[in-house]
Design goal:
InterPro entries: Leng9 (IPR042653), MJ1316 (IPR040459), Reg_chr_condens (IPR000408), SAM (IPR001660)
Structural class: alpha+beta
Oligomer: single chain
Pfam families: MJ1316, RCC1, SAM_2
Helix content: 25-40%
Number of strands: 36
Largest sheet: 5 strands, mixed
Protein name: SAM domain-containing protein
């Protein structure tokens, strides 16, 4: 491309999506116009994360590096290596990172994959490794020794060896999962694989053990997995002797690969009935163990029977109207459609009290929202290091295991299974790690304060082991007690990398467990620096902290005596007409769902705004 074309901002902005920040900054020296383009590009990047019109003449490249930076922290399970961190690994935002036995992979927000030798990355902490770069990468894995595997956005699944030879395993792959010796690929549509006899293959098992560039295409490397008919597989977990599959209907299937012969090219799957009605939403695998996370939906009022509707009315204080509902044989669907209207409340139910009419409408709106029960975690396999959060065992059968005590309304966004630990990351940025016999991650001051009795390697350890087994048996009898015992097996390590005098706000958004390292990627919010550049953003950030859900705002307006309901206007999004405004009193009696509400106005001023997370109430 000609330099004159590159100097046109629209052209430059498009090309900048494929450049690192360092590459963009280097272009500032080309010409005056190019320098201006660089500053405008960085300004647009800052605006994309909500930072507009800085109150400073500082160049955007300096602001960008100060604010948009994320830090990656490393904790080694080898006590001889101190924790260390990298800032701006690539000069651009990082989405995920994996440290494998041979390769380290880093995936950016622009879906560019950077690969280097793991020993090179770990040894030269202050130097930039020699990266191999792959573009438009959807998924990758550095698990297998001596090779790395990546899936492109077009569905091509490739494997790269240490000599950088590359082999195309399959096309039209939807997603894949790997263990140290095997790979499972699920196709977006049934495929014809040349190495397999079937014309319609939905999934394959590819053998990675003893794989070389010379034997990649051998028939023995490919096996066909027979998936259940009419089931859409959304997740895979691979262990050393079994494969588990999770379907969209929340069913779990298993393939036993322990005794599979190389000459047998067909692998069958069977359903695991243990997980029926447990509402499994995710499955995970470590070296020789598995986890399954379940969370049951609470049925919406629209799905309730007449009996369930009666019980609900009694629970919320409307027991006087239960017989009317019973006599008319209302279902939840019928009742939710009609009972939000004042005419129905007066004529069909005999409900004339205005406050009770509003309360009933509010409760119906709340009952129509999707709600969930508490998480449940199930584990099985080897627990020789305590990774399953239960007492040590070489063979744990399917069992419910403990979870950390999550904060109210917090969501689990990632579970990472390592060689000897399990990590849980939540939406609020909390990070939990299983304690194990290999090494307990604690702050230095906590380690120094450990009592001397923990150094006893004899009778006390055996006594503790016997007590663990006793506790485990009691927990199986009483599931609630198991949840109370979670502190024995989980540690909150959210602040393990943060110095006590560091006042910045850290939020973890990705975690990876390798054989030797715990890797955590954090975003950092520094009030002092941002206040210098964006004072208005800091004010908005403080307001965002107390941002209330829609239903809480509705309840506040309904029941807080200092508010007049007639002063409020509700702005909601209609799927056909866009943003619509209605008086609050009319909104309460409507069937508009709360997740469609975009803002509330009080006397013409916006006091709650979903998009800006503004909450002045």
């Amino acid at each position: 491309m000609q330099q004159s074309q590159l100097q046109v901002f629209d052209v430059f902005r498009g090309i900048s999506n494929f450049l690192t920040i360092k590459d963009i900054l280097n272009l500032q020296t080309v010409s005056k116009q190019m320098k201006e383009n660089v500053q405008l590009t960085l300004k647009a990047l800052l605006a994309s994360i909500g930072f507009n019109n800085p109150n400073t003449t500082t160049p955007y490249n300096i602001i960008f590096r100060t604010i948009f930076g994320r830090e990656t922290y490393f904790w080694s399970f080898d006590e001889s290596i101190k924790p260390f961190k990298r800032r701006h690994i690539l000069g651009i935002p990082v989405k995920s990172m994996q440290i494998g036995l041979t390769y380290t992979g880093i995936l950016t927000n622009q879906n560019r994959l950077y690969i280097c030798q793991s020993n090179e990355y770990q040894e030269f902490i202050n130097q930039k490794p020699n990266f191999i770069i792959k573009l438009q990468v959807k998924q990758y894995s550095t698990t297998s020794k001596g090779k790395f595997i990546y899936l492109k956005e077009n569905g091509d699944l490739n494997i790269v060896f240490e000599n950088l030879e590359e082999y195309l395993i399959a096309k039209n792959v939807d997603f894949f999962e790997t263990s140290y010796y095997q790979l499972v690929a699920i196709f977006s549509n049934p495929q014809k694989i040349p190495q397999l006899p079937s014309e319609q293959t939905r999934a394959i098992l590819y053998q990675l053990q003893d794989l070389t560039p010379q034997n990649c295409d051998q028939v023995q490397k490919y096996k066909q997995i027979i998936l259940p008919d009419d089931e859409n597989i959304i997740q895979i977990a691979i262990g050393s002797n079994a494969i588990y599959y999770l379907s969209k209907t929340q069913k779990v299937y298993q393939s036993d690969t322990k005794n599979e012969q190389v000459i047998d090219q067909i692998i069958k799957t069977i359903q695991q009935n243990y997980f029926d009605k447990k509402s499994i939403i995710s499955i995970y695998s470590g070296l020789n163990y598995f986890l399954a996370l379940g969370r049951e939906n609470i049925k919406s009022i629209k799905e309730w029977t007449n009996e369930e509707l009666q019980a609900w009315l009694s629970k919320i204080g409307f027991s006087d109207y239960v017989n009317i509902v019973k006599y008319n044989e209302f279902t939840g669907l019928e009742f939710s459609k009609e009972a939000v209207h004042q005419e129905f409340q007066k004529n069909a139910l005999g409900l004339i009290n205005a406050e009770l009419q509003i309360k009933l409408s509010t409760e119906i709106t709340r009952a129509m929202e999707v709600q969930y029960k508490d998480y449940q975690l199930f584990g099985w396999g080897k627990n020789d290091f305590g990774q399953l959060a239960v007492p040590l065992s070489n063979n744990v059968q399917y069992t419910k295991v403990s979870l950390p005590n999550l904060e109210e309304d917090d969501e689990i966004i990632q579970i990472e299974c390592g060689w000897k630990n399990v990590a849980i990351l939540t939406h609020s940025g909390k990070l939990y790690l299983t304690e194990n016999q290999q090494k307990q991650l604690k702050r230095e001051k906590d380690i120094q304060q450990q009592p001397q009795q923990l150094q006893d390697e004899g009778g006390k350890k055996r006594k503790k082991s016997r007590q663990d087994q006793k506790d485990y048996k009691e927990q199986q009898k009483d599931p609630e007690q198991q949840q109370q015992q979670q502190s024995k097996y989980w540690s909150d390590i959210s602040k393990i990398f943060i110095k006590s005098n560091d006042k910045r706000e850290y939020k973890h958004y990705y975690v990876n467990l390798s054989k030797d390292y715990l890797v955590v990627i954090c975003s950092i919010f520094d009030k002092k620096i941002i206040q210098n550049y964006f004072p208005e953003m800091l004010e908005q950030k403080e307001l965002q902290k107390k941002f209330k859900p829609t239903l809480q705002v509705i309840d506040r307006i309904l029941w807080d005596i200092k508010f007049n309901k007639e002063d409020f206007i509700v702005g909601y999004e209609d799927r056909f007409l866009g943003i619509m405004e209605v008086p609050f009193t009319d909104f309460i009696n409507s069937q508009v769902k709360s997740h469609r509400v975009q803002y509330f106005k009080q006397n013409g001023k916006i006091v709650w705004d979903r998009s800006r997370r503004l909450d002045l109430l």
